[in-house]
Amino acid sequence: MVKRDDIIAYLAEFLGVEEVKDSCPNGLQVEGREEVTRIITSVSASKELFRRAAEAKADMVIVHHGILWNGQNPVIKGSFRKRIKRLLQDELTLLAYHLPLDRHPSIGNNYLAAQGLGLTQIRPFGKYKGQLIGFCGVLPQALPADAFFEKVNEFYATQSLVFPFGPKEVKSVGIISGGAQEDIYEAIDEKLDAYITGEVSEYVMHVALESGLHFVSAGHYATERLGIRALTAHLAGTFDAAVEYIDIPVPV
Q1: In this predicted model, what pLDDT tens digit does every residue of 208-223 receive, in sequence order?
Q2: Is the domain of 111 the same as that of 216?
Q3: CATH label of the domain that carries residue 10
Q4: What is the pTM of this model?
Q5: Which of 56, 59, 60, 64 has a 20 to 30 Å separation from 216 between CA atoms?
């Protein structure tokens, strides 16, 4: 058993919450029981996740995508009301870590992807509100483009949407998980061969074509499972509490 506030304080420091300018509050979003014996983690908050957490007799839920976002409608109704009600009736604490879990230099979504895809010379890349949140690097040996796309799909366990307009062989790669399609311009400025993110917008295809860049949309959900899974293992080794990851896939 561990104190709720001890976990919150630890994660604030470990994930560098105060260093990040974000589109949501990071850390505590809904307060539950003071003592924690079981923690459930997942990528995104949902009523279904909270139901499963309650059935597992959890005291705390930790996600990458929480329920509070800057600029959202403050009226508690509809889906938002259902989520709040479920959390309160089961006294579940909800913690959320968005950009801190994207940019972390050891368990973040982007560093783990760079490492998992075998990149070397890994360094920070891709700015959001003036802060670097992604990573880029080079493959030890250039891969034919088709082989690289297959490697990405195998790593993320997904089927990427690819705009294959870069060089025949891929050597340099940039990665920013989630909805970072606008950072294609930074990939172009860095003269990278390929850029991986989660989502894609209509304008991206022609930008990639005209710039000679491979653009890989591997899925928002698929590219953001890495960090929360790694955080799950980290918490299990740090606190005297049971920690379990629940996968609730989203095909986006």
Answers
A1: 999 999 999 999 999 9
A2: yes
A3: 3.40.1390.30
A4: 0.97
A5: 64
